[in-house]
Amino acid sequence: MLLGVATLVASVVSTAGAAPSPPKQTLHWSSCQKRFECTRLSVPLDDTVSNGPTISLALIRLPAADQSHRIGSLVVNPGGPGASAVQYIHDEARTLPATIRDRFDIVGFDPRGTGGSAPVNCASNLDSFYNLQFAPTSDVARQALVAGVEALVHECEVNDGAELPYLSTERTARDMDRVRAALGDRQLTYLGYSYGTYLGALYADRYPTHVRAMVLDGAVDPALGAAAQQVQQAQGFEGDLDLFLASCSADAGCAFHRDGNSAAAYDALRARLGRSPIPASGVGEGRTLNGTEFDIGVTQFLYFGRKGWTNLAQALDTADKGDGSAMLNASDQYTQRHTDGTYDEMDAAFLAIGCIDGPDVGGLAGLRAIEEQAAVVAPRLGRSVVNNSLACAVWPVATQTPPVPHAVGAPPIIVIGNTDDPATPLAGAQALSHELQSGVLVTVNSTQHTAYASGISCVDTVVNRYLLTRVAPPAGQRC
Cα(433)–Cα(416) distance, rounded to whole angstroms? Predict the structure, then answer.
């Protein structure tokens, strides 16, 4: 699952005074691409008013293989914010353990503002945006970055300004309860990755008695303020990059070994790209790799932990030799750029949802201060990580701040954290497991982002047993 470099998680407004949920709807499923079924669900754009406009949510499911022993639906969110759960289920549902696919319908719905659910539209071509310096080295470059971000935000407001105030995770949590009811499930069984852990925690807080079982993998800490949140994530990516560079320096077989000086070679390459892009024609005629795309490409490889290190080393090696194709391809995967030069809507949704969720970054001056903090503890990637969220400093919709979710009265909720997760550091999972009244922490010795259904048998065993039987692992479980 690919998540935003600066996954913005936290605040939402209280639900006090919200209108009651509309009557349960009946879903009419139709076949879509082999064994999958698709449908749509109508939900109010603003459920705090009566008889207002509605939007339509896209849903997909892979029916349980063993219908005679079917338990119910497993609703999955892959993260983001902004990632399409429908696309994820279509592409990845069959990677879930067979024992889970046998007993559950695997269900995904695109949250409001994403994928097939009234997607936010800012700009179809973001090449000029990613040509800006996310780690500016001069006042001129910084001014250009701010101007470019302001122009992008203006496009978002012009194209979808009427929808932007209604895209909070708070509202998506309420949508998810409508999905649960429409599926015919008395209680929700849920698997959320990364940002999806925030959606799950918020749902459990608002609807604790509606939870059957919940797994929050790659957890974020909703109690963090803007500075702590972004600095912690910058440290996470930087820490994993340091681990990679140390490993590569110690391994003569590493493609970017550079006589045991991988770190110095990395810094020299990044500085060179900051001065002048290099050709990357293997990704498209006339394309080049710049410093911002280099940073994004590196973080894309880091999401996969040690499994991605060989490819990262090879991409650095070829870039150092003058061909940026492999690194630019990784950047394109992260930014969801297509070969025809268009981008999907995930970037727009990432901003629209993340910026309204908050926490408030304190305008341009506040984010600049956060950037400086991040640069101290993460000198290689900190500025780029923070400025990936620069739009939130000038976003037209104010952030909304709720209490931290505690899910009082919910059954045991599994919270998974990897020891060296680059995107959602272990501290986030540790904190969330304490903030949730019934949180049960599972700590995994891993360098990748998220753990379940990724080849770690210990994790799969623990989670499968819990999803099937609702028996949580003992406190202090480690894998």
Answer: 9
Contact present, 451 and 215 (Cβ < 8 Å): no
Reply yes or no on whether 446 is catalytic.
Answer: no
What is the bridge-based pairing of β-strands 188-193 and 211-217? parallel
Closest CA to 218 of 465, 456, 14: 456
Residue 37 is given by DSSP the state E
pLDDT digits (tens, 9 = 90+) for 192-242: 999 999 999 999 999 999 999 999 999 999 999 999 999 999 999 999 999
Q: How many CB atoms lie within 10 A of CB 307?
A: 14
The answer to whether residue 257 is catalytic is: no
Collapsed DSSP state (helix, strand, coil) of residue 206: helix
Number of helices (H) and strands (E), helices first, in the chain? 16, 12
- Are 289 and 328 in contact by the 8 Å Cβ rule? The answer is yes
pLDDT tens-place string over residues 182-202 = 999 999 999 999 999 999 999
**Options 320, 421, 454, 460, the catalytic residue:** 421
Q: CB of 464 within 8 A of CB of 100?
A: yes
Closest by Cα among 238, 233, 195, 190 to 215: 190
How far is 63 from 84, CA to CA, in rounded Å? 19
Catalytic residue among 11, 73, 84, 194: 194
**Does residue 259 carry a catalytic annotation?**
no
Pairing of strands 439-444, 413-418: parallel
Mean pLDDT of 49-60: 95
Percent of the chain with pLDDT over 70: 95
Catalytic residue among 205, 433, 449, 460: 449
